[in-house]
Amino acid sequence: MKKILVSCLIALAGLAGLSAQAQSAEAITVQLNTAETAGDACRLTFVIKNDLAAGLDALGFDLVTFDPSEGVSGYAAVNFGTIPPGKTVVRQYDVGNGACTGISRVLLNEVRVCEADKAAVANCLSKLSISSRSDIDFIM
Question: 3 in helix, strand or coil?
């Protein structure tokens, strides 16, 4: 009886691990890929991948930029639009006034919209994974 109980607990622990892996795969990854000065603005290029089971009808953020002295230097509202499940998209936005060297980091201040199947995605913020491969940090 004791061996059966131990076997059942081990099997349940394995199922719990699989469940956690399945949940962690449900993510929206957003990478600040590049930043380049374009005219009198800084052009940020984002790579967004939707690893949710459903397509995103809308995804939008409020971003805040900081200068090298940690002062707030600007705000930007960006809309990534629709993103089918399993799809990676690239979007560009001009933010700030001046060269990209005037921006030290970008804060994802708020998720303005995160909808799938015409309804808000529950706990959208917890499904986000952000990173930066540019010289500008991208933080939550």
Answer: helix
Give average pLDDT by consecutive 10-residue segment, the chain, 140 residues: 53 48 74 96 97 96 97 96 97 92 97 94 95 97
- As a whole number of angstroms, the distance between CA 21 and CA 93 comes to 33
What is the C-alpha separation between 16 and 98, in angstroms, rounded?
A: 50
Which string of DSSP letters, residue by residue, matches 94-119? EESSS-GGG--EEEEEEEEEEEETTE
Long-range contacts of 73-80 (CB under 8 A, 24+ apart): 73/102, 73/103, 75/109, 77/112, 78/46, 79/112, 79/113, 80/30, 80/46, 80/48, 80/56
| 123 DSSP 8-state letter | T
pLDDT at 97: 82
Q: What is the pTM of this model?
A: 0.81
Q: Beta-carbon neighbour count of residue 56 at 10 Å?
A: 24
Dig out the tokens for 113 from the structure: 């919209």
Alpha helix ranges (H) inside the chain: 2-25, 124-127
- C-alpha distances (whole Å) from 132 to each of 49, 120, 137 are 14, 26, 6
